[in-house]
Structures are given as structure tokens and as C-alpha cells.
Amino acid sequence: MPQAESKWPFRWDLLLRYRYIETIALWEGRLTTRHLCNTFGIGRQQASKDINTYLREVGIDNLEYDKYLKGYKPTQSFMPQVTRGLADEYLHLVARNNELLNMFESLSLNVSNVEVLAHPVRDVKPQVLRPIMQAARQQRRLDCDYVSLNNPDREGRIIVPHTLVYTGLRWHVRAWCEKNQEYRDFVLSRFRDTPELMDESQHGATGDVEWNTTATIQITPDTRLNAAQREVVECDYGMIGGELRITTRGKLVPYALRLLHINPREQLSDPTAQQIIVANRDELEPWLFG
To answer: Could you tell me the sign of the dihedral formed by the alpha carbons of 26, 91, 130, 87, in that order?
Structure first.
């Protein structure tokens, strides 16, 4: 956020940590020095100093220490200072957690000649996401109101979340649904009001058979392309032996195909339009949407 960077002349590595402090506190409801130590590879003393500097110079009155939580939580007057306060920021931080290497702090990147398209943000309120995350981590039941295209009027549901999923366009949570007695996907932006945490449940991620079953998608150039065109496509996608094999969870197959702009049930009349096809469509049939 350029305005934040110009308002506070912080080094990039410090600004990154202040944004992390703000994001974790807002969306998880609890921040400790351990968060900073584990993520940035710094000592507890430096982590404590970063939090205190944030409170003193950046987000004054944004956080307060809760002795019961044994950590900092957002105050009622919390106002984002170095973030936009969007759920998307936290969700992408979670998704890219493995990429947060210590060396990233010292990178000097010139991105003046790079343009990245951003998808529309489907915002989620903190009071909605926090209990979902807590329920997923503690395998607890969650009483919530949810809307869908089939039921646009809010409907009470009791679910047991276990994993947040980013499909490249939107976020949803994989959860056991007590109403339908099966595991389903629930879009985060369709939750209403504040979900209420309940007791623990026996329905965790290990019981989600479809989630734990893997599938391999075989991608090849459209067979209607000539040899020279197929070679171009093979190079584009880094294919080996004329094919690209993508292994994913069975329930994520439809989302993976959408990212590749492939409709396995429809073949475009112009082979240069789609360029690639699914070679093992029959094997993937159980995983495809209707």
C-alpha cells in the first residue's frame, strides 16, 4: 500500500512484519511473538520489539493483551493501517505460507514493467472467518447461516470445517454438513452473521474420503493440431512425452480444469482456441461437476 509506505518510512522487512502483525491479529483474533518467530526466523526479543513498535508508531490502540488468550487481540477501535483489512489478504497469506522464506525480506524487486490482473475480491468479515478457522483447527461443530443459489434465503446449518480451499477465483471451506450428512464445499462469501462455535465433532479431514482420494489429470495438445502446433503447445506447458500430468485431490479436479480453461464435456470447433484437451476424461468422470 503506497500510502502506508510513504506515511511511515519503514524498511521493507519491517513493513512486511507490521503487515503480518496486523493481518494475523485481525483475522485470527490472537497474535503472539511465536507467530513472528516461526514465520520470519527472528528471536523472541526482536518479535516483542516489533509488536511494541507497531503499537507505538503504527497501529496505536489497535491491539490489547489478553491474559486468557496469552496473546494480543484486536481492540474494538481497530483500524487497519498498513493493510486494507480484507479477508483476501489473510487467505492469500495462508495459501503462500510455504513461500515466506527469510530471504524474501531482503529482496529488492523492480516491478515497474510488470502488470498483474487481479480478480474481484469477494470480501469476508473477520467475525465470519475467525470462528471458521478456529473450528477447522479444533475440529469443532459450527452453527452458521448460509445462502446459496438454490436457497437464497439464509438457512441455518451446522458444519464441521476442516480445510480452506482457494480455486484461483474464490475461497471455500471444505466441511462436514450435518443437514446433508456428507462433506461439501461452502463458499466463504456466502456465510451470514457470526458463526457460533460448538462442541467437538468426530467428522474431521481424515473421514473425508473424497477429499483424501487423489486423481491424475492427463493433459495433451488437441489432436486436431498439426505436428508443429502440438510442439508449440507442449513447450508452453512443459509437457514431457507429449503430455502433462497433474495430480490433485479428486474433489479439486473440476477447479483445476477451470484454471486450465478446459470444459471436458465440450470440444471447441477451433482447435487453436483451446489448444489442450483431457486425455483421460473417462477416468475423471466421477469427479466432474454435473
So the answer is: positive
Contact indicator for 195, 285 with CB cutoff of 8 Å: no
User: Which residue has 525480506 as its cell numbers?
Assistant: 105
Query: What pTM value is reported for the model?
Result: 0.70
Query: Tens of pLDDT along 50-96?
Result: 999 999 988 898 999 999 889 999 999 999 888 888 888 888 787 66
- β partners of residue 63: 74
- H or E element that contains 199: strand 191-200
Query: What is the distance between the alpha carbons of residues 236 and 116, in angstroms, rounded to a whole number?
Result: 19
**CA nearest neighbour of 222 among 264, 168, 284, 282:** 264
C-alpha to C-alpha distances, 206 to 141, 229, 234, 253, 255, nearest whole angstrom: 16, 44, 37, 19, 22
